[in-house]
Amino acid sequence: MPTTVNAYIATAADAPLEPATIERRDPKPHDVVIDIAYAGICHSDIHTARGEWGRTAFPVVPGHEIAGIVSAVGSEVTRYSVGDRVGVGCFVDSCRECEPCKAGDEQYCERGMTGTYNAVDRDGEPTHGGYSKAIVVDENYVCGIPEGIGLDEAAPLLCAGITLYSPLRHWNAGPGKKVAIVGLGGLGHMGVKIAHAMGAEVTVLSQSLKKMEDGLRLGADHYYATSDPDTFTNLRNEFDLIINTVSANLPMQKYLGMLALNGTLVELGLPEHPIEVPAFAVAANRRSFAGSMIGGIAETQEMLDFCAEHGIGSEIEVIGAEKINEAYDRVVASDVRYRFVIDTSTL
């Protein structure tokens, strides 16, 4: 019989999240049952719960930054045992047959990955996420959390961490490379930490200097305000890699102009309006404009191991479930440094 667990649920775009109960399936042979300890709040949760992306299937339990402890395993599970520290990120299944899936890039599954929430699983049932006491996930879509990271600060790594780690690794951030992170928020602060640990020379490009002390503390070598027009002049042809973490329509000609020969600007933010990319700014220095989206399961595990090795966790503010709606408003107002994490014992 399915198990009933406490959760916080969004019932409509204009309604606050509220306490409820949901059912979790009995574990299948390859399933892992996870008692959730912490769940991070991602801006994607807010967009979904408030119907801002236009495709929310209410009611829905958000949350795809999940950290907890294995409480039971299916009869054929080999990867995990009861008591293991584990995490679940943005998806809980994929077709497993297409070339991206076979290559370990399940996030780019040609048939579409199965989201941790606001999706439909193989049984035709809606998926519900981490704002709950427990979740049941196929072992192949679960990652182990090393002992070197607290579960609370590990939770945001399952989205924010891998979202930055994947492009930094793909575009070879490391010694001798100059990397700029646009925005020092929930995503950007992880980019600074990870790029610094990889050995790159790291610059933060932020609208103002109000977070400069934080940026330097987190590992940035340089910090510039993009509200100062001299920034774009002084940093022309400067960077091998620029990663944009803000969901705003930036003046791309100015940002592309900061790329060195063969440099790449990677877009992670999802602005409301289409991005205008001026052709001359790209062609002039054989520059590239690219995008990236989270990471596959193997790469997510690699990221967690890397973070444990380098003592990296997310900068967090832990809250009780009763403060979820308040936290949503604070995220929208950029009033968090840098990630809210829900203590699910309060559900």
TrEMBL record:
The enzyme's main class, written as a single word, is: oxidoreductase
| Domain Enoyl reductase (ER) positions | 10-342
Names of required cofactors: Zn(2+)
**Which EC number applies?**
1.1.1.2
Protein origin, superkingdom: Bacteria
Query: By its UniProt entry, which Pfam families does this protein fall under?
Result: ADH_N, ADH_zinc_N
For this UniProt record, the keywords arranged alphabetically read as follows: Metal-binding, Oxidoreductase, Zinc
SUPFAM superfamilies recorded: GroES-like, NAD(P)-binding Rossmann-fold domains
Catalytic activity annotated for this protein?
A: a primary alcohol + NADP(+) = an aldehyde + NADPH + H(+)
- Spell out the family assignment given in the record's similarity comment: Belongs to the zinc-containing alcohol dehydrogenase family.
Q: What is this protein called?
A: alcohol dehydrogenase (NADP(+))
* Taxonomic source organism: Gordonia tangerina
